[in-house]
Amino acid sequence: MKRTVSVCRVAIVEDHSLQRERTVEVLRERAGMQVVRVSEDLPQFVDWLRRSPPALRPHLLVLDLSVDRGPSADPRMVAELVRSGMGVLVFSAMASPALVRQVIQAGAGGVVGKRDSVDDLVEAARTVASGGEWMTPDLASVIVNDPARPPLSDQEERALVLYASGLTLDSVAMRIGVKRDTAKKYIDRVKAKYRSVGREPSSRTDLYRFAVADGYLDEALSGDS
């Protein structure tokens, strides 16, 4: 959904002071945005947001996912912010492509790498603040081609999501329109592909953890299954 505001209010989550100061400078002077809050981690920002007046509510959150002195960003918190109407732009060193995928799945509108240019940051912030999506082809390649995330076919991915969510093989087969033996072959292939990248799925619980970590499943929606 496109958003139009006279002056965009932005908040920043970043724990490194030099990076934080530079981000504030760029967003104020180059993007013409009003920085209303700077926090060191996402829980701090969410706590401030709950207590802040509506006039200070940001239109955009520029979010560093992994911080040294606090918890990594929780995709469930990101999903709540997005549902509330806030744009979320990930500003990441890309140390964990899996976490980036989860946050994108939770609704983040874009990703900027910390090695990208100032112009990239400005363009991404403006795009996501207005309700658009932004990512460079290079970043998209890094996220998709994480070597610890095995390449799955569409049917293998569907089978993994359903099976890891708790469905029986019979139910998986019915959902994707194949025979039970075929559904089992899909799951067996998924297990073999995970083993090929050094991740041993010894149980359905392991498959569930892998599916969440790799962005196939949203833990906030499937954690109770």
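(ticket continues) Second input and output from the same batch:
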Amino acid sequence: MSGEYDVDELLDRAGFDADDSVLTRRQAEVLALRERGVAQAAIADRLGTSRANVSSVEASARENVEKARETVAFAEALRAPVRVVVTAGTDLYDVPSRVYDACDEARVKVNHAAPELMKRVSDEAGDAVEGREVQEDLLIGVTTGGEVTVRKSREAGAEA
């Protein structure tokens, strides 16, 4: 099955550049094939290595991707012209009006209606929101383009 794919072509088509990526070429190769359903054993045969090594390379690649996402989310939160601190104990239903008020003040339009915004906050906050209650302090950012970022805030009180 792995023979059906030209890895160089897959990486070129996706715009992979080892000099600009947090992934090594080997990590990118493994991810490209795994995302197409190729088994680790087949990738190991193709690359002349063990399945355990392919598993390790894949795990490292996925960890690097997650770290890159976290870095981008952090940078976006810093750049967001609107930052709203939502403290633990806040009712999720109170969040949209707080975000909209802050956006009105900054003259930024949010790209989400209230129900969508609550769902986005709940989904991105993970276990920091339970039911309708915010369990951990959150920092909600809104970019100039109206995109919403949600981050758990270790020191939300300092932002207020």
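Agent notes: The two ends are 55 Å apart (CA to CA). Helices lie at 7-14, 25-34, 40-47, 51-79, 95-106, 114-125, 156-159. Closing as not reproducible unless the customer responds.
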